Every structure is written in structure tokens, then in C-alpha cells.
Amino acid sequence: MNLTPALAFIVYNVSATGSLDVDTLFKLVLLTGMLARSVNMIASWFPLILGGVASYVRIQSYLIEGTRLDQRYISVGKGLEGSEPRPAISLRGVCVKAVEDSSLVLRDVNVQIMQHNIVLCHGPMGSGKSIFAKVILAEIPLSSGNIEIISKKVGYCDQTLWLPQGTIRDIICGFDPSPNESRYLESIHACCLYDDLASFPDGGLKTVFNGGINLSGGQRQRLVSNTTSLCQDEQLICLILY
Q1: Which of 152, 175, 201 delimits the end of a domain?
Q2: CATH of the domain at 84
Q3: Which pLDDT does position 234 carry in this prediction?
Q4: With 70 as the cut, is the pLDDT of residue 209 above it?
Q5: In which domain, by residue range, is 109 found?
Q6: Distances, alpha carbon 8 to alpha carbons 15, 43, 128, in Å
Q7: Could you tell me if 165 and 126 lie in one domain?
Q8: Whole-angstrom distance, CA of residue 88 vs CA of residue 119
């Protein structure tokens, strides 16, 4: 037990009154006990109050936020048999502000990403790579320009991992009750999860909870990458950022 506060309280009173009799000592002990309980109670409430205020601010900010509009255009139709692949993503004259009334982060971007291609977006920190990806996802509104994509089904593997609660199999298959088994196995092998699943007693039926706290960092990263690779739609667009 830490007696420093009680001793400091006693020394203060002795220095103020010049004496410490039995009555004064009894009152000091009684008051110190009462104050300790009250202070401990307030200290236990303080984190809960701060958490409640922070949650209220986040909810309030979400409720007063305007409706998000999807400014992307969907490219209709497929390429002819034997013809050249058409663009999966086209950005024309795209300008983006990270925050309202701020300078442009992306200025006059003109990009075409063709189907069945792997494209790397390289640049220094803070150059707008993540914003570029979130523009394609319609998570950030455009200041000007337009975006055309072949499908709104976009698999996105962010730097900050997020996993829903469920079994590994359900997470990979998007909680589809009748997934394509061969695609599921191909996806596991492609993302190097086969050995990990073999080491689990329940295999692919292992339950993931709390954002994957019961998995290692590498297993979480491979599992998130896995969720972007399994899709029966041939026009799926995958965005993976590291």
C-alpha cells in the first residue's frame, strides 16, 4: 500500500497546527479513507467518460456529414473476342483535395489501367498514393474530372488491416453459403495460407475475432489479401497497397 499521500497529509497538518493529538489523527485517518474511495471511484469513471465523449463526437460527425455521391461511371459492354483488352480504370483530368479548402493533392491526373494487368503505383510518402486508390473506391470526392470503371466490385487490401468476425473460410469466401470450392483452394495456395490452415486444429473453420487478434501479423496480411483474390466475377478490380 502506498502511504505517501496519507503521510504527506499528516505532515502538512502537523506543520500547520504544531501538534498531532489522538483526535486529530483519528479525523485524518477517517478523512483520508473517505477521500481515497471517492478519488478511486472518480478515477475509474474518467476513462469511461472520455470514451463516451469520443464516441459521441464520432457519431455526431458521421450524422452531420453530407451524403456521399459515387461520381464514377460504369463502362458498359465487354471487349470483342480477340480484341485488345479495354481499360479497367480510366481517370481523366482528376483533381482531388484531401480536405475542404486545402490545396490539391492530385492535380490533373490522366491514367488508364488496362484489364488483366498488374500496375504499381510508386512514390514518396505523402505523394497521394493512398488517396489515388481511395478515389477509385469513391471514398474521396473529386474536385474535377471523371472516373470510368468496368465494375464497382473492387477488392481493396489496405495498409491498415480489417477482418470481420467469422471463420477463415467464411471471410475468404465473403460469407457465401455455396462458394466455388476450386477457387477457394486456388486462393489459399496463391496467398500461401495452406500451411497455416494445416497447422490449425479446425483448419479453415478456425474462428477469427477482434480483427484477427488470434492470428499472427503475417497470417492477417495474407488473409486480407486472400479476400481480394476470390471472386467469381471476371471483372473484379483488385487494389493492394503496402
Answers
A1: 152
A2: 3.40.50.300
A3: 46
A4: yes
A5: 72-152
A6: 11, 20, 56
A7: no
A8: 12
Cβ within 8 Å of residue 106, ≥6 positions away: 94, 95, 96, 128, 131, 132, 135
Length of the chain: 242
Give pLDDT tens digits for 35-51.
777 777 777 888 888 88
Helix ranges (DSSP H) in 137-216: 168-172, 181-190, 194-199
8 Å CB contact between 133 and 228: no
Buried b (16+ CB within 10 A) or exposed e, 160-185: eeebeeebbbbbbbeeeeebeeeebe
**83 and 55 co-located in one domain:** no
Dist CA 150 CA 85 (whole Å): 12
On whether the pTM is more than 0.85, the answer is: no
What does the pLDDT look like over 106-124, one tens digit per residue?
888 898 888 877 888 887 8
| Nearest-angstrom CA–CA distance, 217 and 160 | 11
Answer yes or no: do 24 and 59 share one domain: yes
Q: Is the pLDDT of residue 16 over 70?
A: no
| Cell numbers for 16 | 500547520
Q: How far is CA 232 from the centre of its chain?
A: 25
